[in-house]
Design a protein that fits this description.
- With 678 residues, this protein is α/β, with parallel strands linked by helices.
- It is built from 29 helices and 20 strands.
- It binds thiamine diphosphate and magnesium ion (MG).
- Thiamine diphosphate binds next to α3, α8 and β4.
């Protein structure tokens, strides 16, 4: 422990009349004690932001701890998720179902209070945070959702969607590039109900940020078109309150409130230093801190009057009751809109959804078009969107290449609502914003870019999967089949690595029918994201029976049965299904009969039972997989006796047909490969 002398709290806070309040004392004590008990965690941010948190959560936040799902609650996102104990303390103190036992179990196996706030683990956690920069980006999505739903549902005199999105963020979030992507777009879209508090403590893990972070943050955000309240003393409750009121009063711009704080404030010897960022204070320093902040209670004990002063249950219930009354009036005036709002906030699909899907399937079968699957995706959106008003499209500046626009698409702007977002060239920001849009409720977002640039969005895709968020990712230009743009744009390992993200459904459809079914499945999937890997080039249509169309949803199925004694099974995806079918014909001429299995989604196939696996891939029959991508993942289907026609190196810049030939995606090579193993 440092033996530096403790200066007075007033001197540390830079406020002559400063004294610690028991309200913030409760936060500081819970954070110190829980981190100490767990012997790990981050006391610095919770202690440094306690005054800001008290002003927001106890005096301003519109929420009902007894109904964390109330549609019009304010949303709160702790973007500096390492400060999780701050959020847990606030949820506990204000009356959410998060007990003192939960706090004592901080960071323990199966507790509701894991190291970082995890969506779904405890009530009131709106999103998972911890990977810095993504919480603020989710918050942009939440605020955008509010704005779009307000534009769609509110009527004069009936503001049923009318809440703020608040977020706390630190130096780390602002250093992360994604904060630029998301906050820049938030400025352009004028998200006036987004209010961010910057914990400007000058410290990150390595120490004083002066060596690596010297941006003029207020100027940066002003340049984005934000309303900025600079130079707020983050321990001065009156100043924080005034800044918050000023931020609420600006309704056409997001607000950033820059709060100067002392990290670990309340720890007499460690405050202001990176020592307090991410380790327990230690028993001696905690004892000294208790004295310093005037907190005379044992660990995990909060006096009744402090609980009472924090308790937001009655106020929250009254706020929700008042909203319910207003909603009833809205429902009386606009019964259909009210029912639609409820349906959408409950995440239920429209009653006519199945009918729309069936009609679209019938049309695709009738048209039997030979088109690129990116075009088939656009046709699917065009067919399904009229039945799905919650669909909210968008692309990272590739609308014309990803083919993500449809006849009724209406671009969102600062002034108008709509159902299509031009995300600009911001892939990571886009997918993180998409997560926020989805988590808010009422919307089903889809996002789009080239499959190659899924890499830029990678961690937000992982977060979608981790949180079980419904987001549909349209990834076009899915292989060397994109041709002349060359190896920088040609995915080789992306489809395979996306498949490896737990709970991500990856689709690589072979034609218009598989693309439509992939879309329908992705929309219907409530508990996770889907990535649709789509071709730039045209692909032929394959006629299927009704059973085969139904089987697409099983991820892998027999597309073309062997016309004689079964010698081998060819497994292919996407553009390589055509090749497999041609190889089947060529092999048959030589008396070698093979079955072609189309495997548009290995993830879905893996989830089927063993009888389905056996029916599609019978034991004892050699298998050859064909996919224009890395081969590793296919060995689990073909085993060591089978073979893979894959691509284990980068591509080249040339016309697609030449590249497929150059790299062995030819009938001759597939025939030879089958003969070598069968
Ligand atoms: C994307 C990402 N990179 C690195 C980390 C590890 N990390 C956690 S907190 C932190 C420092 C953050 O500094 P700041 O936001 O200023 O937090 P403070 O120390 O002020 O609480 C780092 C590097 C992370 N959580 N996420
Ligand atoms: Mg900091």
């Amino acid at each position: 422990m440092s033996t530096a002398p403790a200066s007075s709290a007033a001197a540390q806070a830079g406020l002559p009349n400063f004294s610690f309040s028991p309200l913030t004392g409760a936060i500081r004590a819970l954070a110190m004690d829980a981190v100490q008990k767990a012997n790990s965690g981050h006391p610095g941010a919770p202690m440094g932001m306690a005054e800001i948190a008290e002003v927001l959560w106890r005096r301003n936040l519109k929420h009902n701890p007894q109904n964390p799902h109330w549609a019009d609650r304010d949303r709160f996102i702790l973007s500096n998720g390492h400060g999780s104990m701050l959020l847990y303390a606030l949820l506990h103190l204000t009356g959410y179902d998060l007990t003192i036992e939960d706090i004592k179990n901080f960071r323990q196996l199966h507790s509701r209070t894991p190291g970082h706030p995890e969506y779904g683990y405890a009530p009131g956690i709106e999103t998972t945070t911890g990977p810095l920069g993504q919480g603020i980006s989710n918050a942009v999505g939440f605020a955008l959702a509010e704005k779009l739903l307000a534009a769609e549902f509110n009527k004069p005199g009936h503001a049923i969607v009318d809440h703020h999105t608040y977020t706390f963020l630190g130096d780390g979030c602002l250093m992360e590039g994604i904060s630029h992507e998301a906050c820049s777009l938030a400025g352009t879209l004028g998200l006036g109900k987004l209010i961010a508090f910057y914990d400007d403590n000058g410290i990150s893990i390595d120490g004083d940020v002066k060596g690596w972070f010297t941006d003029d943050t207020p100027k940066r955000f002003e340049a984005y078109g934000w309303h900025v309240v600079p130079h707020v003393n983050g321990h001065d409750s009156a100043a924080i309150e005034a800044a918050l009121k000023a931020a609420q009063a600006v309704t056409d711009k997001p607000s950033l409130i820059c709060c100067k704080t002392v990290i670990g404030f309340g720890s007499p010897h460690k405050a202001g230093s990176h020592d307090v960022h991410g380790s327990p204070l230690g028993a001696d320093e905690i004892a000294a801190a208790r004295k310093f902040i005037g907190w005379n209670y044992p660990p995990f004990e909060i006096p009744a009057d402090v609980y009472a002063a924090w308790d937001a249950k009655a106020k929250g219930a009254a706020a929700e009751a008042e909203w319910n009354k207003r909603f009833d009036a809205y429902a009386a005036a606009f019964p259909e809109l009210a029912a639609e709002f409820k349906r959408r906030m409950n995440g239920e699909l429209p009653a006519n959804w199945q009918g729309a899907v069936d009609a679209a399937i019938a049309k695709v079968a009738e048209k039997a078009e030979n088109i690129a699957t990116r075009k088939a995706s656009q046709n699917s959106i065009t067919a399904l969107a009229p039945a799905l008003p919650e669909l909210l499209g968008g692309s990272a500046d590739l609308a014309g290449s990803n083919l993500t626009l449809w006849p009724e698409a209406k671009s969102v702007s600062a002034k108008t609502g709509g159902n299509y977002i031009h995300y600009g060239v911001r892939e990571f920001g886009m997918v993180a914003i998409g997560n926020g849009l989805s988590l808010h409720g009422g919307l089903i977002p889809f996002t789009a870019t080239f499959l190659m640039f899924s890499e830029y969005a990678r961690n937000a895709l992982r977060m979608a999967a981790l949180m079980k968020v419904r987001q549909i990712c349209v990834f076009t230009h899915d292989s060397i089949g994109l041709g002349e743009d060359g190896p920088t744009h040609q995915p080789v390992e992306q489809t395979a690595t996306l498949r490896m993200i737990p709970n991500m459904d990856v689709w690589r459809p072979a034609d218009t029918m598989e693309t439509l079914v992939a879309w329908a499945h992705a929309v219907e999937r409530k508990d996770g994201p889907s990535s649709l890997c789509l071709s730039r080039q045209n692909l032929p249509y394959t006629v299927r029976s009704a059973e085969q169309i139904a089987a697409i949803r099983k991820g892998g199925y027999v597309l073309s049965e062997a016309k004689g004694p079964l010698k081998a099974v060819l497994i292919a995806t996407g553009s390589e299904v055509e090749l497999a079918l041609k190889a089947q014909t060529a092999l048959a001429l030589e008396g070698i009969h093979v079955r072609v299995v189309s495997m548009p989604s290995t993830n879905l196939f893996d989830r089927q039972d063993s009888s389905w696996h056996q029916a599609v891939l019978p034991h004892g029959v050699v298998r050859v997989a064909i996919e224009a991508g890395v081969s590793d993942g296919w060995y689990k289907y073909v085993g060591l006796d089978g073979a893979v026609v894959g691509l284990n190196h980068f591509g080249e810049s040339a016309p697609a047909s030449l590249l497929f030939k150059e790299f062995g995606f030819t009938v001759e090579n597939v025939v030879a490969t089958v003969k070598a193993v069968a």
